[in-house]
Structures are given as structure tokens and as C-alpha cells.
Specification:
The protein is of the alpha/beta class. It contains 9 helices and 10 strands. The strands form 2 sheets. Strands 6-7-8-3-9-10 form a 6-stranded mixed beta sheet, sandwiched between helices. A 4-stranded antiparallel beta sheet has the order 2-1-4-5, with helices on one face. α3 packs across α4 and α5 runs parallel beside α6. The longest helix is centred in the last third of the chain and has 18 residues.
Length: about 240
């Protein structure tokens, strides 16, 4: 689904991402983990087409996407869903209006928007919160609204950037269970970035461990937990 070849990114002469080669299979939940400053958020921004690499190539299936024209890039981004730690919702809009926003930008009809909003509210299990203001929602409910908005226009891939870091442990488990359930129902690819190994263990099929802007280890979840090979992976497993 996503292929990176020799991807690097520098800021002020410092390498945030250094010669990354990575393949993320279609239809899986793939985790990227590392301590603060490891480069995982920069890598996510490159994969999600929010930034272009200084070097290297990015492919979605067989299509190179890091060199798309501005117009083509806008269209490609509409097939990408993003959820964040701080929800990134509009406080001036209720739950339904937040979910409808990307469909409005894509110029869907009002009828189709309303039908899709109802479908998504049921999908993320907050059908009774359609008209709720953000101040009336818990953190977990806000993240469910954010997930529904990210899924609004049928993305091929869902990127999750520390999506549970602001939530308590019980809510974290419920959101991770929801993401896993949605991935299986919708058959989409999920890329989950976190610094929490427990989040990876509960959710992902495979994981890449980052350290110093490099991917130092990749493998299936069981392999990384049972026999981590690098010090970075050992530190995360034993934290």
C-alpha cells in the first residue's frame, strides 16, 4: 500500500528522517513507535503527504505521490484520513457539523452529507450525540467524532498521530478497540504512530521502531515483544 524508498528530511541541517526504506502492507494496522524526537511524526507527515521529503520516493500502491502536482495532491489527500492527539475539531460546530466538514469541502450534496453523517455516527457508536456541542462531549467521544470525520469520504488509509495520548487508560482501550474494529469492517490500511508500546501491542499487526531518525527494527508484534534485537526496541518493550 505505502512504499518509501530512501526517504530523508532535514530541518536546519539536522536529519529528522534519515534514509528510510519501508513497506506498509495493504489492509493491516501498522505501528510506528519511538521515543520523543525519534522522527516518527516527521515520517508520518511525509507518508500522509503533508510534507515532501528532501530525498527519496513515496508510493501509494504503484503510484509515486511525493511529486504530484498541487491539484493532484489535493485530490490524493482526500483519500487520506487523519486523527490527532488533540482532536482538531471545530468548537463552533456540533458533532454532526464537524463530521460533515470534509464532505462540504468536497462539495457533496446536503442529502448525501446527512446520510453519511448518520452512518458514521452509528459506526463510531455515538448516534445519540449528533447535535452535541464539543463542550458536552468527553475526550473519548470527541475522538470518536474525529475518527468519524476522518472516515467521511471513504479514505484508503487512516493515519493516527498519538491518537490516544490525551486519554485515560480505559478510554484508550475503547478507542483502540474501535480502530481495530473499523479496520476490519472497512478493510482500510491504518498507520498508527505512538510512543506507547502498550498501544502497539493492543492494536497493531506489524511495527517499525524508530531511533535517531532511522528505522532500526521492523517485525510482527510477537517477534518484537518476544525478542527485540536493538537497544531502542528493548528499551521500549521494557519501559
Amino acid at each position: 500500500m505505502i512504499l518509501l524508498k530512501g526517504v530523508s528530511k532535514r530541518y536546519a541541517g539536522l536529519s529528522a528522517v534519515d534514509n528510510i526504506n519501508l513497506e506498509i502492507p495493504e489492509g493491516c494496522i501498522f505501528g510506528i513507535i519511538g521515543k520523543s524526537g525519534a522522527g516518527k511524526s516527521t515520517l508520518l507527515r511525509i507518508m500522509s503527504l503533508l510534507e515532501a521529503p528532501d530525498e527519496g520516493e513515496v508510493y501509494y500502491r504503484d503510484e509515486r505521490v511525493d511529486t504530484l502536482s498541487p491539484e493532484a495532491l489535493i485530490l490524493k489527500r482526500r483519500k487520506i484520513g487523519m486523527i490527532f492527539q488533540n482532536f482538531n475539531l471545530f468548537s463552533s460546530r456540533n458533532a454532526a457539523a464537524n463530521i460533515s466538514y470534509p464532505m462540504e469541502i468536497a462539495k457533496w450534496s446536503k442529502k448525501n452529507i446527512n446520510e453519511r453523517v448518520d452512518e458514521l455516527l452509528h459506526l463510531v457508536q455515538i448516534a445519540d450525540k449528533r447535535r452535541a456541542r464539543l463542550r458536552e462531549l468527553s475526550g473519548g467521544q470527541k475522538q470518536r467524532v474525529a475518527i468519524a470525520r476522518a472516515l467521511a469520504i471513504h479514505p484508503q488509509v487512516l493515519f493516527c498521530d498519538e491518537a490516544t495520548s490525551a486519554l485515560d487508560p480505559q478510554t484508550t482501550r475503547s478507542i483502540l478497540a474501535l480502530i481495530k474494529d473499523l479496520q476490519q469492517k472497512l478493510r482500510i490500511t491504518v498507520v498508527l504512530v505512538t510512543h506507547q508500546m502498550e498501544v502497539i501491542r493492543m492494536t497493531c499487526d506489524k511495527v517499525a521502531v524508530m531511533d535517531g531518525g532511522c528505522i532500526v527494527e521492523t517485525g510482527k508484534i510477537g517477534e518484537i515483544f518476544d525478542s527485540p534485537k536493538t537497544q531502542a526496541a528493548k528499551d521500549l518493550v521494557n519501559a
